[in-house]
Design brief:
With 489 residues, the protein is of the alpha/beta class. Helices cover 35% and strands 22% of the residues. It contains 14 helices and 19 strands. The strands form 4 sheets. The chain has an 8-stranded mixed sheet with strand order 7-8-10-9-13-17-14-15, sandwiched between helices. The protein has a 6-stranded mixed sheet with strand order 1-6-5-2-4-3. β11 and β12 form a beta hairpin. α4 runs parallel beside α5. The protein is elongated, with a radius of gyration of 24 Å. It starts with a strand and ends with a helix. The structure holds ligand BES and zinc ion (2 copies). Ligand BES binds next to α11.
């Protein structure tokens, strides 16, 4: 969808859908008065008859009756002025796009109403995305909105808004890449597919390089955790470690690590079949990392990024790793397997070793790591752990603004007792039913070296939604991309 801005007289705008946002207590916004007059007061009549109450995200539309150049006028509610947040701007644009979609409009002009033009663009692209599935016959009713523009007052404002539109377009494409990857099934989004996407990025984007490591090389490097999971799948669906580098200049070097389990059957500790198909989304961390990397490189961010995606299926079979196995990781530490279903941490541990060997001292990892995270925080906030509060706070602050909310959990050393093994340095999973999400973080922390700042984000609940929530449609979300872009661009 094209994103842009324009300036001009609101009464003269030619569009399928002219959108005006209104607060609950101040229904007839000044810009609405002239339009209302042209339409013989039908808007104010609807408003006084309480046909429409401007709760946040609520909409009503009016026909332009041929008296306006706009075919239709849409009002979108912002709720009470005192409760206004950035999120409401996203919701307003999202809701307007949904109306446009239902009316099969091709273009939409949204009257700017405050300083949240970027959030309007975000809400718009979040509302416009649709995973169409793979039906033989494309559903002709699903017409996409072609253009979303923001109406501003002056030429100067237009220059500013167009800059934001350019940025939003890049982020839109990155989020789309991530959402598609998560929504598509595991017979399509294989480790090779993910590797190819990364290689494509390196081909088409300046200052980006990509290296793909296969199973044998990973074994030589001592990536025992990764290989343990991969060995059960590698005969059929070759596993990959994908390393992307972007050199944007400046001193800062940031590391992004993503869990890329393209299908998590649980392995020998097999999951129940009910709902197992959702485990095609277990590469949500990889999708976030790839999407954010793409956006930051295309925006020419002035930082250096190393991204690493450990990607494989987790399958049962004659080659699979087994409960009781003792695995040696890249840093020499050993793990006793309690459950082969705690596979995310097995592949991430070696990815963390690898990236630190590359000299990266600031790392954020994204992983659909624990079902316990979905149980404790639902689909609203990601689980968040860090070994460096200052680094952590910088992320939390931005995530509150972007609406990609997180909730911090502890990493007290006492939790280590839950991972004690008699025969290895650690268990891969606590045998007690306690602190499932924290022990996931604690396991990963064993692979963080002294002097490395690290954030671990468990997106098991937020990467993929079972219901529409705020301005997020159900299914894949790309959670984390917008925050990483704000943090580093
Ligand atoms: N991929 C799952 C976690 C998950 C569950 C993500 C639900 C999204 C939705 C992970 O690999 C897993 O199986 N975790 C186990 C952990 C346990 C074996 C320590 C779980 O959640 O039961
Ligand atoms: Zn698992
Ligand atoms: Zn998993």
């Amino acid at each position: 969808m094209k994103l842009s801005s324009l300036s001009g007289n609101i009464n003269q705008i030619k569009t399928d859908l002219l959108v005006i946002a209104v607060y609950k207590e101040k229904l007839v916004a000044p810009e609405l008065k002239s339009i209302d007059k042209i339409l013989n007061n039908k808007i104010s009549r609807a408003l006084t008859s309480k046909e429409f109450i401007a709760d946040k995200g609520k909409t009503i539309y009016f026909d332009g009756d041929g008296k306006l150049k706009a075919k239709r006028v849409v009002l979108v509610g912002l709720g009470e002025k005192g409760n206004y947040t950035n999120d409401i701007a996203r919701l307003a644009a999202y809701a307007a796009v949904k109306v446009a979609r239902s009316l099969k409009a091709q273009d939409l002009v949204f009257k700017a109403f405050n300083d949240n033009n970027y959030e309007l663009f975000e809400g718009a692209f979040l509302g416009e995305y649709e995973f169409k599935g793979m039906h033989k016959k494309i559903n002709g009713n699903n017409k996409q909105l072609e253009s979303f523009s923001i109406l501003v007052k002056t030429e100067k404002e237009k220059t500013g808004a167009n800059k934001l539109a350019k940025k939003a377009l890049v982020v839109q494409n990155a989020v789309k890449l991530a959402k598609d990857m998560v929504n598509l099934p595991s017979n399509i989004v294989t480790p090779s597919y993910i590797a190819k996407e990364a290689q494509n990025l390196a081909k088409t984007t300046a200052k980006v390089s990509c290296k793909v490591i296969g199973f044998e090389e990973a074994k030589k490097l001592g990536m025992g955790g990764f290989c343990a999971v991969a060995q059960g799948a590698n005969n059929y669906q070759p596993a990959k470690v994908v390393i992307l580098k972007y050199v944007g200049g400046g001193k800062e070097k940031i590391g992004l690590v993503g869990k890329g389990i393209t299908f998590d059957s649980g392995g020998i500790s097999i999951k129940q079949s009910n709902g197992m198909k959702e485990m095609k989304t277990d590469m949500g961390g990889a999708a976030t990392v790839l999407g954010a990397f793409k956006a930051l490189a295309e925006l020419k961010a002035k930082i250096n990024i190393t991204a690493i995606i450990a990607t494989t299926e987790n399958m049962p079979g004659g080659h699979s790793y087994k409960p009781g196995d003792i695995i040696t990781h890249m840093n020499g530490k050993t793990t006793e397997i309690d459950s082969t279903d705690a596979e995310g941490r097995m592949v991430l541990s070696d990815a963390l070793c690898y990236i630190q060997k590359e000299g990266v001292k600031k790392i954020i990892d994204y992983a659909t790591l624990t079902g316990a995270c979905l149980i404790s925080l639902g689909e609203i906030r990601s689980g968040f752990m860090t070994n460096n509060q200052k680094f952590g706070d910088s992320y939390i602050k931005v995530s509150e603004k972007t609406g990609e909310k997180v909730w911090q959990l502890p990493l007290d050393e006492e939790y280590d007792d839950l991972l004690k093994s008699d025969v290895a340095d650690s268990l891969n999973n606590t045998t007690k039913k306690q602190a499932g999400t924290v022990t996931g973080g604690k396991f990963l922390q064993k692979f963080i070296e002294k002097g490395t700042e690290w954030i671990h984000i468990d997106i098991a609940g937020t990467a993929y939604l079972s219901t529409n929530t705020r301005y997020l449609d159900k299914n894949a979300t790309g959670h984390g991309i917008r925050t990483l872009v704000e943090l580093f661009s």
